[in-house]
Request: fold
Amino acid sequence: EVQLVESGGGLVQPGRSLRLSCAASGFTFDDYAMHWVRQVPGKGLEWVSGISWNSGSIGYADSVKGRFTISRDNAKNSLNLQMNSLRAEDTALYYCAKGGPGGWPSPWFDPWGQGTLVTVSS
Amino acid sequence: EIVMTQSPATLSVSPGERATLSCRASQSVSSNLGWYQQKPGQAPRLLIYGASTRATGIPARFSGSGSGTEFTLTISSLQSEDFAVYYCQQYNNWPRTFGQGTKVEIK
Reply:
């Protein structure tokens, strides 16, 4: 069974940094692109960032470009998101998601982890 | 980026009835369209990809149709576990974008 478990969320002041992690199991991690998708509580979904299986291709939403950095460690089956210069509008539940088949860029996202909540507030 | 617009925002349906949800793309996405279900407190779950192909384990009462800019998700006979929020997502262009969701509630 595929499992994705996010960690690292919390309360952080505007302008500070936070690092999210996602531990993956139940599939061959380095066969798939991986992504972060966020959701403001009670609102819709926004793709944030994605990374190909070998880190050769990386993408960011315009809203986070230059502030967030995605990375992965295939030896540890882990995905990371370094978030710098955080803003109030980054407050959301951050989901780790496995990319669909066909490599980069992934078509759909399946499955998703349960998410980790990031709150940016003074 | 491609804007996905879902309608209605909320759909009130009685158990056993049919539900029809719409999704419109701001430009053609061919058949590169997926649907997700999200229940309260849970992550989204993939229901449909390729506009009409059910994902693994998804019951046959869920069906998708459409191509280009107009898409429909139909739930033929609503079960209690189907009351949730449904999102469409296009994967024809980068970045991948989602609709704002349709909440299916009990009438």
Remarks:
- Chain B has a mean pLDDT of 97.
